[in-house]
Amino acid sequence: MSTAALWPSRWPAEDGGPSRRQTAPGAAPRIVDGERLTLAAHRDAYAATMLVLRDPGELFALRHTMGPHPLTDPSTCWVERLDPLTLEPLGRSPDLPGGPFWPGGLAAHANGELYVVHGNHCHRLSSGLELLASRRLARERPHNSFVVLSDGSLAIKDLDLDLRVRAELTLLDPTTLEPRCPPLILPEPAVARLSADGNTVYAVGTETIWRAHWDGSALTLDEGWHHR
Fold first, then answer.
1. 40 φ, ψ to 5°?
2. What's the whole-number mean pLDDT along residues 49-76?
3. CB of 142 within 8 A of CB of 103?
4. Full domain range(s) for residue 78
5. How many CA atoms lie within 13 A of 158 on its CB side?
6. Which of 47, 45, 48, 50 minimizes the C-alpha distance to 17?
């Protein structure tokens, strides 16, 4: 089972965590023959990327703007806290700079804070949705979400929709949002989102799956492991 420094909730990050198993811990609800699910609440929330859970009763949604030309128009994002029963907003972060558009990501970190990656920015928020820190990422292109490693580092990757530029893998310190090491240039462009197991990061390139290891001081491509 993958380990990550995430808040101990049933759904603290995209796909349930960096291994992307898309399952919640604990027993699944049992649906008996003939039983039907009914809609409990509905809310129209245009351009909502994902939902995460923190403490019981704390449901957070990542939302963003989307102009008439979303791949070229600059974008912003924000995080809402929702009532888990009615889905009505209970709180909202300030507007957060985004930049080049692509749906980003949201996670509840083990340190109790929320992290957002959208466009070419990373933001750190309190659980009360106060902005604590922001960082503009080096490349002027969208970064599609992120994963949290077992030591708390944030692993982030950009993408080139023209599939010409090799992807750059960056690790950020969760407190300062400063890079923890020089970035690693992957051998290929990569559009698919990252996954991770512990402190090992997996990237799906245009033709090959690669992995890199973080040992606390350096991020190194595993030259002996790749699959077409």
1. -95, -35
2. 89
3. no
4. 14-23+45-227
5. 24
6. 50
